[in-house]
Amino acid sequence: MRRPPPLAFGQVSILHAIADGNRFGFDIMDATGLTSGTVYPALDKLESMGYLESRWEDARVARREKRPPRRYFDLTAAGAQALAAALKRYKNLKPVSLSAWRIRPSEA
Amino acid sequence: MGNRERPAAPALLRVLLAIVDIGSRLAPPSRRRAWRRQWRADIVHEWRWRSRHPRGASSPASLLPRAAGALRHAFWLRLHVRHLETITQDLRYGWRTMARQPGFTAVAALTLGLGIGANVTMFSWVDSSLRRQIRGVPDAGRYVALNGTTRTRADLGFSYPDFADYRAHRPESVEDLIAFTFAPMNLRTSGDPQRIFGQLVSGNYFTALEVRPAIGRLLAGDDRRETDAAAVLSYAFWQRRFGGDPSIVGRAITLNGRVFTIAGVAPPEFRGTEPYLSLDVWVPLALESSILGDGDRIDRRGFSWLEVLVKLKRGATLTRAQKDLDVVAAALASTYAQDAGRGVVLAELWRAPTSGGPAVAAVMGVQMAVAGVVLLIACANVANLLIARAAGRRRETAVRLTLGASRGRLVQQLLTESTLLAVAGGACGLALAYWTKDAVRWFVPPAPLPIEIDPALNSAVLLFAVGVTAASVAAFGLVPAMQGSLSSVAAALKEAAGTLTSAPRGGRMRKTLVIAQVALSLVLLVSAGLFLRSLANAQAVDPGFSMRSGVLASIDLLPAGYDAPRGRAFYRALLARVRDLPGVDGATLAAKVPLSFGGSGSFLVQIDGYAPAANEQIDVSYNRVGSDYLRTMGIRLVSGRDFTDRDTAETADVGIVNETLARRYFAGRDPIGGRIRVGARAVQVVGVARDGKYALITESPRPFMYVPSDQWYRGDAVLVVKTAAGPAPIVRPLHDAVRALDANVPLFDVRTMAQHLEIASFMQRMVATLVGAFGALALALASVGLYGVVAAMAAQRTPEIGMRMALGATRRDIVSLIIRQGAGMVAIGIAIGLTGALGAARLFSGLLIGVSATDPSSFTATTALLVVVALAASYLPARRAASIDPLQALRNE
């Protein structure tokens, strides 16, 4: 299998923010300090690379709050692996627990 | 709960949502809904959250730059959607486009389907007639035909001793050789005898072909010893005649009067090794004298009666094997006098001289080429439709280009649509081929043979269909794709506005396509014209005999147990009876009626007074005929006499030669009284007959001789009865005459001379019919294409036409204006087409009979037809253009 190119810092920080519990576009912007014009395309790109998957919020929750359901993002196993690898390079990102994604040890 | 903000906030929210709405226009269509939903939800949520927590980090107003980021996101998506989206989205989009325009889609798919279907059908015919000559054997490609050659011929068979020698000394490159000969037989179980068709085969036949029995065993025996009178039935015959009865093995059947034990049944796929024929039975070569009945031939070197197939060793090439077998042939030629001057030639089965392959291949080649041209025309039509549609989508294209969609992306989308269309066309084509493939049977001559050509949509044919579909995508899909997306944005936008001055875009390409269509269809039409004339000539060709009204019927005395003296007496009595029947103008016998396709027998002869060149073998085809043959058949006697009832086994051997033989071997001498030595017999020439066609109407004159059937007796003969009136009333009395002589002798293959002559021109009929049909199809497609383009051009010129009419142009002027545009394209197309037709006709001139490849009447007649149809196709839109209301036209401007 072809090795994917290393992630840019912006992408890593977005994955990091998501791993840290920020699931929605605006939360990720706040967490990373990146602009919406950067974050939203990056989310689409990361999804197309298979590092993220997006879903629509539960409609009942949204209805209760009288607003449309939002799109939220979650790491895939591949995304968690890529993040784990990248974190070794970007030491200044705060450590984050990736245990929930069950990365195979050999690739972590 | 934040009551203070309420009046101001919805306004802000409205602005934010308006930005999202604007942005959604930027987003690519395939993602637009999801994008809008995502951004609206995020904005609404964030706005609420911030409104509720006014003292939080940022105010709702700071959402504005974030909303502006939405525009960047949308734009980015538009640029990158190609990388994000899979082909399925393109397909979905393409599918929607197709579904939105069902009329367009149906026309395009059907047009393509006609083109693809024509090709698939033709290929299935090629596949069944040329590619699959031997079926039901593994590795069929390893079998090649071996023929004997002399200085003048390359289609000779082999004697058994020669075959045995080739087999014994077969080189490394040859795994094995098999020998066989075609043998019609009479089957006798109970009741009436039945005519069946089989082969005498060498003992290694089935083992070499690696055929396994369906039931019982197959043949494997010694060729020289008549120990094993066993017969193998074909699966179809077993089913047909014995109802698939498994207890058939070991039972006895009587073939040509000899009892055989049924050894087993061949598998269903295996039909024997005669091209185009599906055989009923196989018996050992050793029983040749029982089946063929004219003496022991198995040990006679120099008596060529066997066909031989070579099984190449795995990986060995034909060239290698040819070289190796040449060495064996040279050794045999220097060892045996009968083999002096003889060589061998190997050929793939489809081009083997004895299989009729080359003739069939030539015809099939023409048909494939013609089908290919039809597909090209169909593709040009669809390309034209796509360009016309692209014109309608120009604004969409322009907008997408403005927004930064790459040309590659647009091309990919258009190609996806073209592919979808082609797949639909391919499906139509396959359906069409499924219905038309069996039409090949219309062209199979009504010969008294078990001819079986069964085109099938097998994997090879399906693969071909996929290839043709892919090729047509390349042919019609790329043109509009390039056309549709490579234009400059400014030009596209300007044209989309559609002004009086704008030149019709895509116009040049469309014109080119129409010109190409006209040219190609003219090539087909001219070819069709030539083949039609050729067919007329084939039916009118002088075969050298003038009998046209009469009856032919076959008789075989061997199975009824006749020996030569009794047989001669039978035939003499039969002829006497038949000649006495009312309405009969003459009756005679022939081993073979002229124009029966199959090769005639041939003698190796010496001619007294003719000194052959070194290694020259004089090979003379002959026919065994009855008394009064020349008169009955209407063959002109140049000099000497016809055979009479006094030319019998007891009198001296006599023969009649044709003009070519007389000219070639009796140059300057009177052939009458000359001697032709056939083996130990000396045949005295008593007559010279006019040249004729003996096997095929296309053959050129060759040396030929007639010998009396009484002197060269065989049990089988064709009874030739010439009638003054129609042939029908004579059929019953014929049967009665035979029955009166011997009730056990059947009369079979009763046919009229007219039917027989129809067989003779079946090839010409096939080509003429198909090329004619394809030519008509091409003309129809091309005129639809022309109509479409002229109509589009007329529509584009509506404002101009309105202006002209306002300035005083009459309707006539307008009609001629528009027609002139169509006529210009047609004229160029005709010029190119005539050139192309001249070239094409040269290629197939070998298939034409009595008509030159530059036959002026075919060229002018078909061109005239094309001009008439083309003018009609331009006149319709022209008339419509002329009937517009000028005020209306100008107002629209």
Descriptive notes:
The complex is a heterodimer of chains A (108) and B (893). The model of chain A has no long low-confidence stretch (mean pLDDT 81). Chain A has 108 residues and is mainly alpha-helical. Chain A has helices at 9-19, 25-32, 36-49, 59-64, 77-89, and strands at 52-56, 71-75. Chain A is 48% helix and 9% strand. By secondary structure, chain B is an alpha+beta fold. Chain B is 51% helix and 15% strand. Chain B has a 6-stranded mixed β-barrel with strand order 2-3-8-5-7-6. Chain B has a 6-stranded mixed barrel with strand order 13-14-19-16-18-17. The interface between A and B is medium-sized, with 25 and 25 residues.
N→C terminal distance of chain B: 59 Å
Query: How many distinct beta strands of chain B?
Result: 21
User: What is the CA–CA distance across the termini of chain A?
Assistant: 17 Å
- The oligomeric state of the chains shown is heterodimer
Could you list the spans of chain B in which at least 5 consecutive residues all have pLDDT below 50?
A: 1-7, 498-504
Largest interface: A-B, 25 and 25 residues
The major pleated sheet of chain B works out as: 6 strands, mixed, barrel
Can you summarize this structure?
The complex is a heterodimer of chains A (108) and B (893). With 108 residues, chain A is mainly alpha-helical.
Task: Give the arrangement of secondary structure elements.
The complex is a heterodimer of chains A (108) and B (893).
Chain A: H1 9-19, H2 25-32, H3 36-49, E1 52-56, H4 59-64, E2 71-75, H5 77-89
Antiparallel strand pairs in A: 1-2
Helix pairs in contact in A: 1-2, 1-5, 2-3
Chain B: H1 9-26, H2 32-52, H3 63-84, H4 87-100, H5 102-131, E1 143-149, H6 160-168, E2 174-188, E3 194-201, H7 205-209, E4 215-216, E5 230-233, H8 235-242, E6 252-255, E7 258-265, E8 281-284, H9 288-292, E9 307-312, H10 318-335, E10 343-348, H11 357-392, H12 394-402, H13 407-436, H14 440-443, H15 459-485, H16 489-497, H17 507-540, E11 550-556, H18 564-580, E12 584-590, E13 602-607, E14 618-625, H19 629-633, E15 637-640, E16 654-658, H20 659-665, E17 675-678, E18 681-689, E19 704-708, E20 716-723, H21 731-741, E21 747-752, H22 753-760, H23 762-796, H24 798-806, H25 811-843, H26 856-882, H27 886-892
Parallel strand pairs in B: 3-8, 5-7, 14-19, 16-18
Antiparallel strand pairs in B: 1-9, 1-10, 2-3, 2-6, 2-9, 4-7, 5-8, 6-7, 11-20, 11-21, 12-20, 13-14, 13-17, 15-18, 16-19, 17-18
